[in-house]
Amino acid sequence: MDSRVIVITSGKGGVGKTTTTSNLAVALARAGRRVVAVDADIGLRNLDVVMGLENRVVYNFIDVLEGNCRLNQALVRDKRVDNLFLLPAAQTRTKDAVSSEQMEELCALLREEFEYVLIDSPAGIESGFRNAAVGADEALVIATPEVPSVRDADRIIGLLESMGKAPIRLIVNRLRSQMVRDGEMLDVTDVLDILAIELIGVVPEDDSVVKSANRGEPLTFSDASPAALAFQRISMRLTGKDVPFPKFDEENGRGLFAGIRKLFGMKS
Length: 268
Ligand SMILES: Nc1ncnc2c1ncn2[C@@H]1O[C@H](COP(=O)(O)OP(=O)(O)OP(=O)(O)O)[C@@H](O)[C@H]1O
Ligand SMILES: [Mg+2]
What we know:
By secondary structure, this protein is an alpha/beta fold.
């Protein structure tokens, strides 16, 4: 099968990796792709909860690697949409329970079954991150428009480059246009200036993200909230569709859209 293994990572914790993984997995599956979302956050797993599948977890991927079960016994099939699966992390193990070689082995197994393998990485730049990234071809880096997050993203991009991942693309999450307008938040152009990688999407701050996480129902199942639409656009861009960036901020010609126009050498 022609498959793509994509690690979703950030450096800094709490910036939206798990949210992004779950929403993109659902959006891709709804578009007919065969998808597995892999929770590589060993010990702190929560992708199962955000996806509403925690009650159906029996085995995890370490069980597969240790030969306690077969891959298809550990995969949790989502009943709401065809072709969507979760491969859970172990709750009671530590990040060094697996080696890089084992993670590569696991990704090779998943490539045989899935078109899209989305790996939710733990925070940090330690072994947990490396194990999440080692078997991936490409990476999505999540950053919020805040200096510490951008700095950590920069560090992680350097590591991903040294590991040979390509393409490495950026998602700016939790953008608040009003704060950008007020000069209180970095805008997307500022972030892109620093990180100098390709932008694949911008997700606004949106309360429905928190509600959906509590309900165990990723927004891309049905919702038409701003964040849901942003994740849908990102999933389409991932599959190679040319989806224009919307005009987030029409006022005073600044902010997101002006920045993006500048980036592509267009007149504001
Ligand atoms: N666009 C958004 N708007 C509002 N809240 C958001 C948005 N994105 C993420 N959040 C919230 O931020 C919190 C952290 O998100 P999430 O768990 O996806 O981050 P993470 O990078 O996976 O964290 P960790 O590093 O701990 O694994 C969650 O409560 C989530 O609901
Ligand atoms: Mg997470």
